[in-house]
Specification:
It is built from 12 helices and 10 strands. The protein has about 260 residues and is α/β, with parallel strands linked by helices. Bound molecules: ligand C2E and calcium ion (CA) (2 copies). The site of one calcium ion has 4 residues, from strand 6.
Length: about 260
């Protein structure tokens, strides 16, 4: 009896959540936070846009608790469209203030299948007067490989526009190394799970070193994510990983705080 009632509760929770998610999109409950990406000389070289849901009754709901549902139900498509436009708009505003900061957005698997994705990207960039190379698109290794042939068509056409691509969560999926040399990508982001154990864990250290060397050899940028300590930073810099994202520098922050961050 307990089992069924908890299943029942789960189903109910899902329905409630789905209902509020739909409503949230219509009533402006989402906000983008931005996490700085730091390059050589402590320069802010980018900002990853991360979605935040401020529910009027439940408070803050983290992306891990609603993105999967949005993905399953296709709601991620209109939601992702909002993210795309909003992030481009933000980059434009920063530019107006003299800050040259490209934005990265996360593209989900449903969005890759959306027939209008190319025109959405093109319009968001153009309407905000951005140079296309100021929009970076992150796609996880597993999303990319799940439907590689079709994704490649989308990737190539967006690359032709001039936007840049990064492989997110690199090392957690199954991309064949032989693909890496032909994929139209510009950067890889080393997954946080390999950064955690640095510099003490010998295996993490070996992987961190190897992934960085491989990426550099292929002329790709390398971004380490989830960097929290100075020791991790020192290790990564010493092996040649030049872009760092993580709590060590800053958590994701609202757009207005970002400007302040860049002036520190
Ligand atoms: P992700 O794309 O891998 O984003 C990085 C996540 O790691 C973010 O979590 C960020 O806050 C967290 N993080 C960054 N540095 C550190 C650190 O030093 N320590 C720790 N412990 N965590 C760190 P967040 O914002 O909760 O987002 C989780 C995931 O939700 C994202 O993972 C991404 O897959 C998804 N997501 C967020 N926004 C969007 C969006 O607009 N569209 C799509 N499709 N997915 C999104
Ligand atoms: Ca990401
Ligand atoms: Ca990631």
């Amino acid at each position: 009896a307990f089992y069924t009632s908890s299943l029942h509760q789960k189903a109910l929770d899902r329905i409630t959540l789905l209902h509020s998610l739909r409503h949230a999109l219509e009533t402006d409950q989402f906000e983008l936070y931005y996490q700085p990406q730091i390059g050589p000389g402590n320069a802010v070289v980018g900002a990853e846009a991360l979605l935040r849901w401020k529910h009027p009754d439940l408070g803050f709901i983290p992306p891990a608790n609603f993105i999967p549902l949005a993905e399953e139900t296709g709601l991620i498509v209109p939601l992702g469209r909002w993210v795309l436009y909003q992030a481009c708009h933000q980059s434009r505003e920063w530019r107006n203030l003299g800050l040259d900061i490209p934005v990265s957005i996360n593209l989900s698997s449903q969005q890759m299948k959306d027939k209008s994705i190319l025109s959405l990207v093109e319009n968001s960039v153009r309407k905000n007067g951005l140079a296309p190379e100021n929009l970076h698109i992150e796609i996880t290794e597993s999303t990319l490989m799940e439907n590689l042939d079709k994704n490649l068509v989308v990737l190539r056409s967006i690359r032709e526009l001039g936007c840049l691509f990064s492989i997110d969560d690199f090392g957690t999926g199954y991309s064949s190394l032989s693909y890496l040399k032909t994929l139209p990508i510009n950067a890889i982001k080393i997954d946080r799970s390999f950064i955690d154990g640095l510099p003490g864990d010998q295996q993490d250290a070996a992987l961190g070193r190897a992934i960085t060397a491989m990426a550099r050899g292929l002329n790709l940028q390398v971004v380490a994510e989830g960097v929290e300590t100075e020791d991790q930073l020192r290790f990564l810099t010493s092996v040649g990983c030049s872009i760092i994202q993580g709590y060590y520098y800053s958590k994701p922050i609202p757009a207005r705080d970002f400007i302040e961050f860049t002036r520190k």
